[in-house]
Amino acid sequence: MAIKFFLQMVQKQVITIKRSLLIFLFAVSTQVLSAQKIKNGVYIFNIRDIEYHGMIVGKCKAIVKGNHIKLIYLSGNLSLIKPGDIYAEGLLLRHKRTNQWIITSKRGDVNATEVGPCSETGPRTIDFRTKIIEQC
Asked: Which residue range(s) make up the domain with 50?
């Protein structure tokens, strides 16, 4: 009788674990799918300058349409650009190794060895979670 009771308890625990695992996998897959594409729209970003101790030096408007992005400079203290000018433009893609969003002109940059504002040859990165784009 004790063995039968024990087996029933184990069976209930296994069912509970299976359900929890299914719920977890569903939640993870939903997050992954939603994280793979940025919704079309207009977003406001702060521009952070890495060389100036991470200081915010301006604002820009990001216009996303499909996998294309255009950044329009809005305001700040950058000297070589004026409000309304295009700050950056290109394809909006996910970098495979770092999983960061990049702005590039070449699809092959998803495999670039380095990315980010201070990289020698890599594409620019953009953070949609913090709404910050960094420059060097």
From this structure: 41-135
